[in-house]
Amino acid sequence: MGFSKEEISKSRRFWSSLWRGIKTVFVLFTMFLSFLLVSAPIFLAVADALLPSALLHRLSSPANLSSHLTNYDFRHSLIDIPLISIVRSAVILCVYGLCDGPKLSRGPYLTITMICSVSSLIYVSLKAAFVFGEPANGDGGGSYFRAAEVALFLCSSVLAIGHIVVAYRTSCKERRKLLVFKIDIEAVSACKNVYPRYQMILQQERLK
Fold this sequence. Notes:
This protein is mainly alpha-helical.
């Protein structure tokens, strides 16, 4: 049983519109991924400021948070973990906003990010040795509180490592941009130097 021309044209229009829709979704998804990659330092800094604070809020009530601030103890209080994350993300974000292309490639952005991340990693590691060396003493007690503590320390450490990775990738990307820009400048200047000589040789050959 054959198909009519109208059915064939409808089928072609359907598949054509479906293919255009797939291509549009693919282009939008690619643009969204590129936007995430370009804005990775900003998104990571925001996540670093929010996630540890949210985990600590799940661990303690607001009253306990204020008591942690007034009765701070390095071996038991966890309030300093999100505070370190907030300070770290604020410093890195400010440096990223103040740096341009050359400074992002070889300048203070990568250096300050490394210093902030490594120092915070050392602090969190030392604090974890004290905190997990003693029994859990949280509001809920038991395994849930200990698992939440582990998640808080892991979150802060992973975000610190993420800052280093993102800063290194941003530095490499800006270095490649500067290299391409330098090659373009050298090519243009070489053409400017060669073209007058070529014109002079042509004039000399015409006069002969």
